[in-house]
Every structure is written in structure tokens, then in C-alpha cells.
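lol so apparently i was supposed to do this last week
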Amino acid sequence: MSDLKLAASVEELRRSPMSTCSFSTSWPVLDFGAIRRTIMAEFTEKYGPWALVTGANAGIGKAIANELASRGINIIGVARRQVLLDQLQEELEEDYGVEVRTIRADLTDPDSISKIELLTSDLDIGLVVPNAGIELSGAFIDSTLAANEHLLRLNVVAPMQLAKMFGAKLAARGRGGILFVSSLFAYQGIPWVANYAATKAYILSLGEALHVEMKPHGVDVTVLSPGLTDTDMPANMPVNFSKIPIFKQHPEQVARIGIKALGRKATVVPGLLNKFYAWENRLLPRSFPVALFGFLIRHAFRKDTGATRATPQSQTS
Ligand SMILES: NC(=O)c1ccc[n+]([C@@H]2O[C@H](COP(=O)([O-])OP(=O)(O)OC[C@H]3O[C@@H](n4cnc5c(N)ncnc54)[C@H](OP(=O)(O)O)[C@@H]3O)[C@@H](O)[C@H]2O)c1
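anyway here it is w/ NAP bound
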């Protein structure tokens, strides 16, 4: 670059309305504080002032609510256990000074989505995170039809309904986002967790497609597909995950990666090894990784719980 062009660029930077650079002597010094404030302001402008997070009182949902609140976004937390919702509200208000509204709802209840719509109609929601989910592990044929239908209502129907209702509102607003929470298990069939993996494949497919469909409306759609994450969900599964070559991540780490991907990526899988598992099945005949995971999970079932017992989780209110 010629001296003349360099001088012109420096002058342009100096005049930048974002004021992200300050100058000492002749060298530009990046003002990281100002850059961070600008990024935060843009984030809040697009995805704030309110975000709705389902399953916000525990695990990954709670970590997402915290991460969003730390960026100055007000939180609407949805779940069934009110005592944990109250705790979340207290923590977020105290730690970040944001506003929090809690909605006690069982998302498998067909009226829950209209209840959420009614109770949030006065708020300007810029981001929706349909995160609440349960797993169902064990032999598919040993599980009850009721447990499988319950799984579909929470993991598939509720996120679809929320995306449909809020998607239309966000499109009308001309900006905002939807952060779906799928799973690494969405990327292939997973024996012994078959229907759970299938529900997550639905979310991955829906989100990938909506990423393209909603873009022209100014709405960013991203699918976060965590691998094994340290929450109550895997802790309560009858599976000894230490027998599977997979690393456990912290929910805070997973939440940060998901939120960072908003507006940048259609899909994100946190962790290098998880990324490998998500993509290797595109290089190999699909039957191979499906059989491999079937073998690994089958042998990781804890003997004391019954090898292939079906265990519907979290069905209590
Ligand atoms: N942890 C992992 O290893 C992992 C890996 C991949 C994907 N994921 C996905 O991440 C998401 C969050 O899972 P997590 O690990 O954070 O699980 P978690 O710790 O068990 O939390 C589940 C959350 O969902 C809420 N919930 C459960 N049933 C509900 C219902 N019927 N109506 C409303 N809310 C309900 C729970 O609150 P209440 O019980 O109070 O209702 C809780 O806030 C799920 O979609 C899961 O599939 C998790």
C-alpha cells in the first residue's frame, strides 16, 4: 500500500463514527472496550430487548439465559418448575440488572403456546430459543407409545409452534433470531436413543431450511447441536458415557458458542471431536457410523438399570 493510501485509510478510521480506534503518536491502537460495546449494542439492537428461552431454569437453557442477560437482553424464561424459574429471575436481575419474566408452562400441553403468546403480547421479543427437551433411551419397542408421543410433543411440536408463531412476528418486525437446540445425535440414526435422535434430526432440518427462508426477512436462524453436555439430562440417563469416546462440555461453553453463531452460521456443533462425529458420516457409508454408535451405546448402558430399558425423563411437573 502506498504511503498516501495508508494515510487515507488511517484518516478514514479516525473519522469512523463507531470510534473504535484511538490514536497515540502515529500508531493506531485498537480500543477493545469500544469495539465490545459496539458489538453488544448491535446484538441488543437485533436480538433484544427481550429473548424467550424455553427450559431456561436448568442446564443449557439456563446457560443461554445467563449469556443473553450478560449481553443486556431481558429474559422470558419458560419451564414447569416455578421455584427454579424464581431462582433464575433473582440471579439474572441481581447479576446483570436485566428484567426477567417467568412463565410456568408445560410445553407438551396443547394450550401452552397460546398461553405464552398471551403472556408476552406486551413485549418486544427479538430472539426465541426453543431449548426445552427431554430424552428417551432404551429399546424403541420396549418404550410406551405415550412416552414417545410426549417426546414428540416437547422436542418437535412445541419448537415448531414457537418458531411458526414468533417467526411471523420477527419477520414483520424485520429483525431478530431463532436459536434452535438440536443435538449431535441429529446427524445420524442413533440406535437405543432412536426416537430422541429422530426428533433432533427434525429440528436440524427445520432450522437449516428456515435459515435460508427467513434471511430475506432479516431473521437469523441457527441450529445449535451440542454433544454430551454436563446437565441433568445425561446425568439421569442409564448410560455410562465414560465408555463412549466423547468429551463432556460445560453448558456455559455450549451456550456461548450457540449465541456467537447467531447471524453467522446455519448450524453449529460445539467441540472439535463432536464436529468430527457430525461430519464423518458424510464421508463414510452411513450404515457404518449408525452401527458403531449402536454398538457403543448398547455397551454403555448401565447394567444396574437394565440394559435396554426405556426411560422417559422429566415427565413430572
Ligand atoms: N445435555 C446434553 O448432553 C445435550 C446434548 C445434546 C442436546 N441437548 C439438548 O439441549 C436441550 C436442553 O437440555 P439440557 O441438557 O439442558 O436438559 P435439562 O438440564 O434436563 O433441562 C431441560 C429443561 O427443559 C425444561 N423442560 C422439560 N420438560 C418440559 C416441559 N414439558 N415443558 C416445559 N419445559 C420443560 C426443564 O425445566 P422443568 O423441568 O422445570 O420444566 C429444563 O429447564 C434439550 O433440547 C436437549 O435435547 C442436550
